[in-house]
Design goal:
Blueprint: H1 3-16, H2 20-31, H3 45-50, E1 52-58, E2 61-68, E3 74-78, H4 89-97, E4 101-105, H5 120-134, E5 137-143, H6 145-155, E6 162-166, H7 172-183, H8 187-201, H9 205-212, E7 224-230, H10 239-247, E8 252-258, H11 269-281, E9 292-295
Parallel strand pairs: 3-4, 3-5, 5-6, 6-7, 7-8, 8-9
Antiparallel strand pairs: 1-2, 2-4
Helix pairs in contact: 1-2, 2-8, 5-6
Length: about 300
């Protein structure tokens, strides 16, 4: 945790006993902290450099966009909070080999993009912009917070016949609850924090659910879903992912891994195989219709 974040966390704990309102405001500030920026891993560098690059405008700033391959069918990849597009490098290579054209971006204040702040709406806006230039999208794949963005985009303005959510959740409330649990926020502080989150979007809890909850408001009936989650994911436990899978019964496939965690799951061979098969042929392309478990070697 960077020094600035540690200072904010100290302020939250000091303020909590006397002013839950102030502590809730500080918690929201920490929740939306994007630093430190993730560097490109050495093993991903060649794929990162191989991309055709562009810039797209988001809320008065420009963000980095990436394109690989020349296939007719386009796939959009959406990274998570404090992530970047290069995390998908193993998947990019697999999809391009299978003949897909792959599109991604670094959200504002992430990766190689400009900006100092961002939220879920910027992910969706980026998807909309890329749909106009590179769509329609055959599939959307999202990791962690990007999984929520993928669900939101596919439910609203960026239709796709297939959506894959890796280490993600169905709604903002899952991320808020996990943040409050991790920081051990007092109930009064957690309540203020969630209220301020809704106020940032101009929505009450019912409005947040209507706009961003893919369990209460599932994907369109013609969209298939792949849910991938590690049993011991310490950053986002899998309970909400299981709810998401259940809410799309009959058109969702569940792959539960064990031992890959929150980020390494993106490089796991069973996950890459499942995402590529699903992207190509939907649930029918995966060898079994039953939930699977893949264990790290």
């Amino acid at each position: 945790m960077p020094t600035s974040a540690r200072l904010i966390l100290g302020g939250i704990r000091a303020a909590g006993a006397v002013s839950p309102r102030l502590a809730g405001r500080l918690a929201l500030r920490l929740f939306f902290t994007t630093a430190p920026r993730m560097a490109v891993r050495g093993s991903d560098l060649a794929t990162h450099r191989d991309a055709q690059r562009g810039r797209i405008p988001i809320r008065g700033t420009e963000i980095a966009a990436y394109r690989w391959g020349r296939g007719e069918r386009a796939v959009l990849l959406m990274h998570g909070w404090q992530g970047r597009a290069s995390q998908f490098a193993p998947l990019v290579r697999e999809l391009v080999t299978e003949g897909f054209r792959v599109v991604s971006f670094d959200a504002p204040a992430h990766g190689d993009s400009a900006g100092r702040s961002t939220d879920l709406r910027d992910w969706v806006t980026a998807a909309e912009q890329l749909q106009r230039s590179d769509g329609p999208f055959h599939a959307i794949v999202g990791h962690s917070f990007g999984g929520l963005a993928a669900l939101t985009a596919a439910r609203t303005t960026v239709p796709a016949s297939r959506v894959a959510v890796i280490a993600g959740a169905s709604a903002p409330t899952a991320f808020l609850a996990e943040f409050s649990r991790t920081l051990r926020l007092e109930p009064a502080v957690a309540a203020r924090f969630e209220q301020r989150f809704g106020a940032r979007f101009g929505l009450d809890p019912e409005g947040i659910a209507a706009a961003y909850d893919a369990v209460q408001n599932p994907l369109p009936s013609g969209t298939e879903l792949l849910v991938v989650h590690d049993r011991v994911d310490r950053r986002m436990p899998d309970a909400d992912a299981l709810r998401l899978h259940a809410a799309h019964a009959g058109r969702s496939h569940l792959l539960r891994t064990e031992g890959f965690g929150h980020n390494r799951v993106l490089q796991a061979d069973p996950v890459l195989d499942a995402v590529v098969a699903f992207t190509g042929a939907g649930i029918a392309g995966i060898t079994t219709s039953e939930p699977q478990v893949a264990t790290a070697p």
